[in-house]
Write a structure and sequence with these properties.
Blueprint lengths: L6 E5 L2 E2 L36 E5 L5 H11 L7 E5 L5 H11 L4 E7 H9 L7 H4 L9 H7 L9 E6 L1 E6 L17 H15 L4 E2 L8 H14 L9 H14 L13 H6 L4 E5 H10 L4 E4 L8 E3 L2 E6 L8 H10 L2 H4 L5
Parallel strand pairs: 1-11, 3-4, 3-5, 8-9
Antiparallel strand pairs: 1-2, 5-12, 6-12, 7-9, 7-10
Length: 346
């Protein structure tokens, strides 16, 4: 176990100081198609003057996009054309919409890194005037600093946050190493835990999302590398990195071979194909929706240099060429309302 502990925060290829954002509709990630009603009547003041085109790199899966349209936007007083797509098409989408209708009202929802790229292209307009009307919101001051990409103006309003966690079937807890605590689990204990299960059951119970659309690369970028090297970007070589790869080679010997085809870990966990897994919180919601009493969630392990941690932060922005920002501003106000952001809304 390490004697010093640091939290290394990695965000879109930049080391950042963000720690929290208002709890969000990142909770909108289940597989069931069902309408969910607000716990209390929600009356939102305001009225749009024209339809809004909402371009988003978030809520791409069919289920999530459906819930955005049918649940989250249900009480918005206006027409919203929600268009989720891959981040590589975001700039092209904006240009395409404005080419067809120069007066179009556009709102962009994307990750910090995507918005940073647009800002560097001078494709976003400052939203300080919008933020001034949201003073009752509880945004993290550290997070707000990230929105000021030129050191002065705000280029997006914080929208939602997610991260990565580990999940274990409670069956696996019987094989934990003596004295191990899930909240303080070390990488060495994770390996020993997985080996204990294999030795006692013959099962390679640890799983990672290493398939074509899996997020395994984030595990290396935001968790393993910083936990072993105290760096997210510059220490890819050296003795610490070598020890990290030696560790992972040993760990992989007890990783379920089918991990190479898993893009998400919810289904293999529910099917019992793996007992322990790491993945994005949004991709694990299904586990706790379907079998909440059979699983536990806990942080990624602690390494020799501390615990690596990667927040996934997204924001709401308005393209620079959008002439009328009144309607997009209204949608930003709506999406950051406490009742919409409330945990468990979906």
């Amino acid at each position: 176990m390490c004697t010093k502990r640091y939290v290394w925060v990695f965000l879109s290829l930049s080391v950042c100081i963000a720690l929290t954002v208002i709890t969000s509709c990142a909770k909108v990630n289940g597989s069931e198609e069902k309408e969910v009603q607000l716990e209390k009547a929600f009356v939102f003041q305001g009225k749009t003057t024209s339809p809004i085109t909402f371009l988003s790199t978030q809520m791409n899966p069919v289920e999530e996009a459906g819930k955005m349209r049918k649940v989250i936007l249900k009480d918005f007083p206006g027409i919203v054309d929600f268009r989720p797509n891959d981040s590589s098409f975001l700039s092209v989408q904006i240009d395409s919409v404005l080419e067809k209708d120069p007066s179009a009202s556009i709102l962009v929802g994307a990750l910090h890194g995507d918005l940073l790229t647009l800002s560097e292209k001078d494709a976003l307009q400052p939203v300080d005037s919008i933020y001034e009307k949201l003073v009752e919101r509880s945004f993290s001051e550290n997070l707000l600093k990230l929105t000021r990409m030129n050191g002065k103006d705000m280029f997006y309003i914080p929208w939602m946050q997610a991260s990565f966690v580990m999940v274990a079937n409670k069956k696996a807890l019987a094989y934990l190493p003596l004295g191990a605590n899930l909240d303080e689990l070390s990488y060495e204990q994770l390996a020993l835990w997985s080996k204990n299960i294999f030795e006692k059951t013959g099962m390679k119970a640890l799983g990672f999302p290493s398939g074509a659309k899996g997020l395994m690369h984030r595990f290396f970028q935001g968790y393993l590398y910083p936990s072993f090297t105290a760096s997210t970007l510059v220490k890819f070589r050296g003795e610490d990195a070598k020890r990290m790869w030696e560790y992972f080679k040993d760990l992989w010997s007890v990783v379920a071979p089918s991990s190479l085809v898993y893009s998400t870990m919810a289904d293999p966990l529910l099917a019992g194909d793996v007992w322990i897994a790491w993945d994005h919180t949004a991709r694990l919601v299904k586990v706790f929706e379907n079998m909440p009493d059979d699983f536990v969630a806990f942080p990624a392990p602690v390494g020799p240099k501390g615990r690596g941690y990667m927040p996934v932060i997204s924001g709401l922005a308005i393209p620079k060429k959008t002439a009328d920002i009144q309607d997009p501003s209204l949608l930003i106000d709506y999406l950051t309302q406490e009742v919409i952001q409330k945990p468990g809304f979906i």
